[in-house]
From TrEMBL:
The keyword Methyltransferase does not apply. GO terms for molecular function: ATP binding; ATP hydrolysis activity. PROSITE patterns: ABC_TRANSPORTER_1, ABC_TRANSPORTER_2. Residues 2-228 form the ABC transporter domain. Signal peptide: none annotated. This is ATP-binding cassette domain-containing protein. The keyword ATP-binding applies. Pfam families: ABC_tran (PF00005). Keywords: ATP-binding, Nucleotide-binding, Transport. Belongs to the ABC transporter superfamily.
Amino acid sequence: MIAVEGVTKQYGHFTAVDDVTFTARPGRVTGFLGPNGAGKSTTMRVMVGLTRASSGTVTISGRHYVDLPNPGLEVGVLLDASAQHAGRTGREILVIAQQFMGLPRQRVDQMLEVVSLTPAEASRRVGNYSLGMRQRLGIATALIGDPEVLILDEPANGLDPAGIRWMRDLLRGYADRGGTVLLSSHLLHEIEVIADDIVMIGNGRIVSQGTKTELLHAAGTVVRATDIAVLQRALEQLGITATVDENGDENGAGGGAVLRTDVDPALVGKVALEVGVALTELRAADAGLEDMFLELTATSQRDVAIA
Ligand SMILES: Nc1ncnc2c1ncn2[C@@H]1O[C@H](COP(=O)(O)OP(=O)(O)OP(=O)(O)O)[C@@H](O)[C@H]1O
């Protein structure tokens, strides 16, 4: 488990991370999302003692990173895949990690296999690796000590679609075996697919956090029906606000007017049954992580949409 409590990081008068609190739990993949410069990397660097927080604390499995006697056995870290020594081979980098952590030699070959780096690739210098190969090597280094916690900054960066699928399966399996995974990403769809819990940060502050289901379903319900006005009246008589959009919604099946409400789809279905209105569409209004992300971090986006 990773517990971040009230972490603030100031550089002079600039607050890069502002009172950030969240928990990444065992058995779950926690996605850490935010626009460029939001404070994700700084928060992750604070977690592993590379940056000193101005205030607040982070504990990993109940202890501060600096107090871990052999940190690689407790927490696997990938912050910058390009930071590996360019003159060493992939295998050498893993051997150094294996020796440093006091692990059996065979862990090196096991890890190369896990991340699908061939023996020929492993004997090449890292300076000649593609970004995707560096990410794989970085993930191998993070995993070599068989830690319970993984902290990965943009691990999908540079991976091709098959590589992204591979990484997703790897992290899913790791979390399903009880591990704690915290990963940051700009790839919103990737987070939407892989994460169980999501923490969104903008301008150094947490703007939203919760389970993916909670966040995505917070958007209410979208309905199409044979007589939408009757359904709208019935809902309003129960004190439920329901708005009708005559132009519909391009994401929905079919055309026509759409009714939106904040309540659960099950309740809307029940009300429709009671008033004898046939529903032609009933679904949770998944705004999609991208819409939610842009909305919640609107004040911290560099680029605004051009209408
Ligand atoms: N050593 C430093 N000195 C001054 N400012 C810094 C330092 N490190 C980070 N910052 C600033 O803190 C803010 C947060 O940076 P950070 O790298 O944590 O963002 P990020 O969310 O990881 O962004 P990205 O997605 O672009 O990597 C940025 O405005 C950055 O310029």
